[in-house]
Amino acid sequence: MAEKPRQGFWGLWNISFGFFGIQIGFALQNANMSRIFQSLGAELDNLSALWIAAPLTGLLVQPIIGHLSDRTWLGKLGRRRPYFLAGAILASLALLIMPESKILWFSVLMLWVLDASINVSMEPFRAFVGDMLRKDQHSAGYAVQTAFIGAGAVVGSIFPWALEQMNVSNVAPGGGIPDTVRYAFWFGGLMFFLSVLWTVFTTREYSPAEMTAFDGVPSEEEAGHAIRLLAAKNYSSSLIWIAAGALVFWATPFFGLEKEVLLLGGLLAAYGLASIIAIMLAKGGSSNNMLSSIVGDFSGMPPLMKRLALVQFFSWSALFIMWINTTPVVAQYAFGSADPASAGYQAAGNWVGVLFTMYNAVAAVAALTLLPFLSKAIGQAKTHIVGLLCGAAGYASFFLLRDANLLLLSEIGIGIAWASILAMPYAMLASSLPQRKLGIYMGLFNVFVVVPQLLVATVMGSIMQAFFPGEPIWTMAFAAGTLIIAAIAMIPVDRMIAPQIK
């Protein structure tokens, strides 16, 4: 097999620079959507339900885009870059329109559009690093990508606060979305588009013939293997998924859970039904349909990917809890205001942008300094365990630190965890997967990024309403606990990864 050319500094820069703009948009969404929802009249206990749009779109979009991008070749435009560009155009438009929302449900609809568009751009970037780099550069490639993610998130998170320092109004007359948020979203839309455009114009993807020379396995053979395995399966696992969905439908009214939990049951049952159809198509000899390919690849994930998927599930549960609840937590406990219409609450919203800036800045630095050092000294798996435990400590410290300035210390541990979550699992995974199927595998891996977000969005509201009504601080205890579970789940991974990627 041929070896891919080694990329220098500017090659690594160009491959991942688009993520800088993507993350500006993502950070603006994460830091401000709860604030926008509450500014337009949403109740605290309904925030999780309103956020359902974000993980649901990721769950549907990422595997489909991954599957399609593996099979796309548009000449000079390439394989992954068409999806970068399409997602950037749609996301930029959504960022321009979002702050013009006057009613709550329009903002929820725009969150759906924005998150779907971000996923269309974001998913192929993960595979793009694997496409363009040799295996011995995967760690460096994902570290540079993480640095751009951190830098973009710093810009996106702090921008509303910076505008307030320039005397831009931070409170909308009569309620609604203030100018600081409106102008920040418009800036984010412009940067999203220009950054992705940079990567599109400064990189050249390898052709299908070149990828076959690098990988040694024709894509047609890889594509058919998953469907052949699926055709040999029975329907028992599909029926288990459907039964799990039915159980959720029964348990929701029986235990008095919030109605949003029904969506989780619907998704479980829908996957079971989809897998039945996929198996039937595979048994019937349909060898080139998307549904069977996706279901076959999902059911046939490599063992290492399954272990890392479990770690991702718990890691991203903690992150989504943080994104939804940090603003109400900081407003209530550090600024003494739970009223979204108050100046104190809006000030807390801007300070959350500063806190998010802190953890993203720490992540950008840690990705290029701390993580490579630890990875070389103790291995990638142990490095990830350390990072996750740092994040757990950061979340737990919210119970001890009630001064807004001291909360910056909490963000140091969270930033180290964020850097590790963005870099270590992908570096371990990319080096162990078939290079020609990186798109679908990265898309399926990201299912375990969005499923926990969906679970948090549907279940967390019920838990908080039942046990901790009006006390959002307890969400940070859940975040700390899930990161500890993720760290424990990483322990077997160290024995599984190949020596060359430790």
Describe this structure as you would to a colleague.
- The protein has 502 residues and is mainly alpha-helical.
- The protein folds into two domains: 407 residues, Growth Hormone, Chain: A; 78 residues.
- The chain has 22 helices and no strands.
- The chain is globular and about 60 Å long.
- The relative contact order is 0.15.
- The C terminus is likely disordered.
Task: Summarize this entry quickly.
This protein is mainly α and 502 residues long. It is built from 22 helices and no strands.
Which short descriptors sum up this protein?
502 residues, mainly alpha, Growth Hormone, Chain: A, 22 helices
Task: Reconstruct the topology from this structure.
Layout: H1 9-16, H2 18-39, H3 47-50, H4 53-70, H5 81-97, H6 104-132, H7 138-165, H8 179-202, H9 208-215, H10 219-231, H11 236-254, H12 261-283, H13 290-299, H14 303-333, H15 343-368, H16 370-378, H17 380-396, H18 407-430, H19 438-445, H20 447-467, H21 474-490, H22 493-496
Helix pairs in contact: 1-7, 2-6, 2-7, 2-8, 2-14, 2-15, 4-6, 4-19, 4-20, 5-6, 5-8, 6-19, 7-8, 7-15, 7-18, 10-12, 10-13, 11-12, 12-13, 12-20, 14-15, 14-18, 14-20, 14-21, 15-18, 16-17, 17-18, 17-21
